[in-house]
Sequence to fold (208 residues):
Amino acid sequence: GQEGRGLQPRGLAPYPGLRGPGVITSDASGDPEGLFAKTLVGGGKGAFGAICGSNAIWSRFPCERARGASSTALELHAALAGMVQFMPRGSSVYCVTDSSSAAYCINKARVASDSELQRRTLKAVYNLMQDREAQAVAVHMPRELLDLCDTLSNALDIDHARTLLSAACRARSWPVMAVHHAPRFTVSEDGDIAVEHVCAAEGCECER
Fold:
């Protein structure tokens, strides 16, 4: 993979568990060969979600970013979207994913394969951390422990995501989480990230 400078966290608190403060969980779902042929069928393939505290985001993958993408690239995009939404300036966060290769990429600052999309997305992760003077450490967890994010990534649309997540929270006797549209951003060939919009709450302009 591409050589890079690995993350050296300073003063990061011990990992507090999936529902702890500063923990962003994410998941992606999609068939890399037929992502956009399955936009409305096949269990909502081609979508991603992320959760932090009592808030969640959901979206479909932008065509220009995901067509023919590897699962690692999709998982990196989901983690990046979670960081855009939930990583405050000057903070230290844990990014939890069920993709060991995505966690490796984030922690080692190198791509897991010769993939230009992975390389650009990983650069965007580090550029975002630099811009916000923040740091993130990736944690790999089995999919079974990230079932809420898995539920989000298989939703057909945002209303379906809200229905599914609400049911999952009630089944655990947890407060229902708010589900927002994922942030809109672009990533240049050099990995520069331009955030266009972050959905703040229901009633946001992206709901109209």
User: Anything to note?
Assistant: Residues 90 and 133 are 5 Å apart (CA to CA). The longest strand covers residues 23-29. Residues 1-9, 32-44 have pLDDT under 50 and may be disordered. The two ends are 43 Å apart (CA to CA).
